[in-house]
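Issue 218. Parser rejects a valid record. Input:
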Amino acid sequence: MQSSQVLNKKDYILESTLRLAEFLVNTLSEKIPELALLAVRNAFTDCIGGSIPGSRTESAQIMIRFVQESKSSGDAGVIGANFRCHSTLAALANGVSAHALDYDDLIRPLGHASAVLVPVGLAMGEELGLPGRKILEAYVLAVEVGAKLGACLSPDHGDKGWHSTSTLGAITGAAMASRLLNLDMDQTCSALALAVSQAAGIRLNFGYMAKPFQAGNAARGGVTAALLAQKGFSGNPEIFEGPLGFCSLYGGRPEDLDQAIERLGAPFHLAVSEIQFKRYPCCGGGQQILDALLLDILPNVSVKVEEVSQVEVSVPAFSFGQAMFHRRPKTGLQGKFSSEYCVAAALIDGKIRLATFTDEAVLRPAAQEFLEKVSVAPHEGEGQDDYSEVTLKLRDGSRHTARVEHAQGSLIKPLTREQAEQKFRDCASTVLSEKKVAESIALITRLDEANDITSLLEGLRVPDRF
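Output the parser choked on:
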């Protein structure tokens, strides 16, 4: 029968799921590089910092109320609120807050991994009373699993319109939660399979509240999968393999997975690949564009906005078609995914900040009119060169061009410790007192030394909210 031919397993490698589970269960702490742990600690600082004002956005406020109204029992806290709930719901709410401003970091090919993994770590860490280093180690291992899966999917996965933050995020969330719960190999296989059943999210939701929901839902799904597996809930132990497995269905090649698994921890992804921290609270595709304008062109050219006749922007095809695709934004959320608006705001205001991406800022007449002067196009040719180029044309006929390959915050141009802490202060001070901000920074920077993370979460609560 045709169905038996479809399910024929002779052409692909079995036990990929089992080998991933074995890595998560058996990797010793001393095998995890300190360099990777340092990167994760920085990721926690950045993500928690962005989550604090993120908790005040409309999307996060709706979600926090939704979680509170569930009246669930549990010991996991919600950032920016003053109640505890079940770890699955805390991960959901904090995931939405983490991604609401799109100010959180990027890890290729996983997308916004921290917006998923940090909420998982905080929720389970507080509910289980876990030490900080265990949480950091679980993050490293989860990224390792997700990066190897992502290598088998890219670029087809994104080209089909999937949002890897949420598809791979559900799986990495389950991987992290499984490690934190000390699941055995069979349980971990089930957790990964149950996560695949929740791996969802598409790019068409960029510019809407649904995008941060996709991150929060992935965090919730990962925790749910691990907790169910711990109780004996089963899933297919060969969920990634073959023509009907995750890799095939989500745009990848399962035959590549075996080679990727051979490289698990050799070297660790976070020891050699960058976590890109954002300088601006908008899509990652806008970081190079804004650096070109604000760091390269405008500091060297005295320009009044009325003197600009046209702005030409050349970006990677992926950014043009699948990330920064709102050509004429009408809301603050859409503005975060609009190259045209980012250019307009940078030239009109001379800076980009959280207030740049309100509905009122996007809809102001000066910004809407300037959109017509901005033309954005993908790079010519077949290449996927990862750079952005901006050309500013003035009415006097002069042209000023800048090309940026590595945005501030990347591995090549990392934020300094002072810049990273200032970003945290700028974000956190919108909600927390100066004393609480200072205490939070001190706790996060010593997260690997903490016996448990309860005191950190206590400092992120706001007594007069909810």
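Fixed in the parser; the record now loads. The chain has two domains: 2-272, 284-404.
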